[in-house]
């Protein structure tokens, strides 16, 4: 509508100028001096272009639209700033109200005093009081600013303390995890130790069983006797032979086998043999030159079974029925 009105006004002014000032030339126009024609009036100014008038309102409308778009953003920013400032202002206002109340009470007291004083002195006192009030207000404002700064510092310190506590909690959790891992490791070590102890106990039990077996073997009565009874003595610095006699004390034929603890130093002949009931067998024991040390000779005996020609196989297949006889050997 504004554009149409401006265009209409422009057209009407142009027509008015053309009709009123320019018009058609008069028929009997007076000539000037010397028979010259009278000067023509100056041409009217050109009408303002409609485009310039059109552009101005368009630009205004664009600027208004852009301002409308920017208005909500600005309002939001203002609101955020106002919220932050409101919190601080509320605290300041509360403090100011408290101080105002205190000031009012002081003013009442001062007024009561001033009413008693003279009129001339009142003016001077009022000026002084006002100056004092101004000074107090300035000091109070400074104190409030300092308090606000202190409050900000306290807030920062509290935040730092909270962060430190969080870090401490994290470290405590890490330490707890480490302790749990250590406990688990200790449990595993204990389990391994228990397993080792169980294995040791099993070995001990096996050894005990073997010892019991040997004891049972020793509990068996031997089927032979040895003469001379006791230990055999040899001289260490020379080769020497000695003889022992085995007697069958059983009512059946027996077989024997002789073992030594050192086969290189001590030689036995025969190693295997059989003895009829009540009869004897001689065995020769030879000692070679060697350093003196203790040794032993073991006689394994059992009721005869198998073959005379291969007594070693008979001892392997059959368990001995007689107890072993041990003869100690010493060399000096």
Automatic annotation (TrEMBL):
Keywords: Cytoplasm, Cytoskeleton. InterPro entries: Ig-like_fold, MSP_dom, PapD-like_sf. The keyword Membrane does not apply. Residues 50-80, 86-146, 154-224 have a biased composition (Basic and acidic residues). The keyword Cytoplasm applies. Residues 23-238 are annotated as: Disordered. Residues 223-332 form the MSP domain. Gene3D superfamilies: Immunoglobulins (2.60.40.10). It comes from the Eukaryota. It holds the Pfam family Motile_Sperm. Signal peptide: none annotated. Central component in molecular interactions underlying sperm crawling. Forms an extensive filament system that extends from sperm villipoda, along the leading edge of the pseudopod. This is Major sperm protein.
